[in-house]
Each structure stands twice: as structure tokens, then as C-alpha cells.
Amino acid sequence: MTLSYLLKLHRNISIPWRMYMPRTLSSSHPMKRDKHIKHFLVQGGEIVPVAHNDPRIQYWDPMAQAYNYLSVLSAKVYPKDLHIHDSFRRKYKEETEKKKRGVIKKYSFGASRRCKFFIRNTAHLMEYMVNLTYPNDYPMDGLLVKKQLHKFLGWLRYHGYKYLWVLEFQDRGAPHFHILVDKEIQQNNVRAYWYKMVNSGDPKHLERGAVIEPIRSKGGMGHYLTSYLDKPKQKTVPLEYQKVGGFWGHSAGLLSEDKMRIYGSREDIAKLKKELKPVKQFDRGQKRNWERRADAKALETDVKKKKYKKFFTGFTGFSLRVTNADKLYDELLRRDIILWPYRLTGIPPLPPAPTNVVLWQGSVPEVGKRDEPRTQKLIESDEELLRKWGLY
Fold it and tell me: Which pLDDT belongs to residue 278?
């Protein structure tokens, strides 16, 4: 075990090295915090922004030498949705208990829910829809199809496009793609590149292989796309099609979200939860309307509504997932009411506080010689670090 290897392990501290970490750097270690999450502390009924390494929101308070028994709420504000839940009540799983992702064989309910959520919150950014099809001689190997798709998506990224793609199957069994892009795109360029990518050699495919449609209605486009791109008939995988893989995907940085965590006593957090009563009522009203429409449609089509069971995930705390929360926000805004999750969206996250400097514990300097407090750095050299571990 060389010196460089030990120092490399020290620079990249992971979970097995938590025994060497001080108590102030437990699960709320600054290295493990997302820099985009905003942190707030409730004091006297006011929500104050704090840094992610503020000692007041850590498990262990080094000043008081005691644990901080704080309740925590996590909130995520999206363009159309709102998610709020408790943070410290999720069941922790070891690495051996986590299930590995299996082979994708069908368009599952979870994939459909995530795709609808993403389309609903990004449809207002999209300008055009690109439809890519294959010629009469089409491949039935999912690996080859995805390879050609990813090359085309790389071409879009090279030209500065943001996108969202969905895989479907035609009646003849051929795969085809719907790709939503955020700005204008030339149809001739798309047809030429897709024809070159597929290498079909069919002149009809050069003329009809790619069709571009503009997205005109921004208001109802989210609902239209979620219903249009979620047709179950076109998500059925043909029997001869192998290794289908994922059914949808998107470019990085497309979804905008405001993540925040609010720390406070149980009484303060309970007051924040009570303020969300209009959100709960709006969510319950939406679900009742959806159930009525589903029951009416089931009577017309003689198809029973499919009910999905609620699986136990080990989470027993407060959880609120609201769809189309922007309608409630607009309605409350007319009454000059702004809920606390939306009040905190415009506040930028605070930079981390310095942790390598402490006040000097020696003698007090003479008056007039130095006005600022002297400081002492806590940076250890490599030899001191190894001597502390007993390896030097």
C-alpha cells in the first residue's frame, strides 16, 4: 500500500471510510449535498435561507455539543407539478439490498408515469415534433435500432437542440420514433441524415422517412402529447423484436426544477404542512374528477378501469404529489395568496460557509495592533494525516 494510494483514498472519501469522518460530517456531509438544492431554516415563523453546511441544520451541533432534533420537508417545484415529502423518514437500504435493473421487456406502468410527468412539465418548451420511420426492410434488433437513434440524437445535440424521444411500433411491426425539439429544424436536413443513418437505399424512404410537424397550441399541448404518445396499442412489442430497451428518453438539462429543504422544529414544520391544505383539497378534487371520467368511459366502452395497487415502499411520512399545480397557483395568485413553496423559488442557494478556519484560541491581541481576530488553519499535511492513522 503506497503513500499515493492512501492519499488518493483520503481525497475521495466514500461510505466505507465513514468511520474516519468526524461526527459533524455524518449523512449531511457537504460533499454529499446537491449544490442545486436550496436550504432554509424556520425561525420564529420566518423561513431564512442558510448554507448547506450550516451547523444549525446538521445532525450534530458542534457549538452546543448536542444533536439537532429537526424535522425536514423536501419540496420540488416544477412548471406543472409540485412534490413535497418528509426527508428523513425514507427507509435506508444497503448496497446488497438494492435491486438491479432488469431487462426491459415491455412499456411498464412506472415508465408510462415518468414519461407523462416529463412531457407534462417540458411540453411548453417544445416547438416541433419529428417523426422518424423505417423503410419496408426494417431491423428487428433493438440494439441496432437504438444505435441508429443515438447517432441521430448526437446530431441534434451537435446542432444545439434539446429533445425528448418516444419509441412506438407501427401496425406492420416496424419501430418508429417521435422526437420533440425546442426550436425550428429543417425537414430536408433531417431526412437526408436519417436516410444516411439507416442506409436503406430506398428513394421512397428518403422522401418520407422523416416528417416534421410544428407544435402550435401551447396550452393543451401537454395533455395532447401525453395522450398521443401513450397509446397502449403502439407500445406493444412484437414477438420477433429482440432487446427493446428503453421506450423514452430526453436530453440533459431539459427539465427545470427548484429543489429545496426546509429545516425546523416539529411545531414549525407542522404549521407549514397546515398551509398546504388548499393543495390537498385541489389534489383530491382532481382525483375525484378523473375517477368519474374513467368510470363513465368504462360504461361506454364496456372496459373496466384498471386499478393499480399501492405498493409499500417503507415511506410512512408526509407525501404530496400534485399534478397540474400551476392551475392552483394561478387561482390563488388572483386572491393575492402565494404558498411557501412558490415564495422560495426566487431565492438563490447560499454558497457554503468556510470550514477550514476557526477563531484563534490563544491570547487576545493588544488593542491597536490588530483589529481583526487572528485565525488558524486546520489543514493537515500528508505526514500528519498518516501519523494519525498509525501508518507513518
Answer: 92
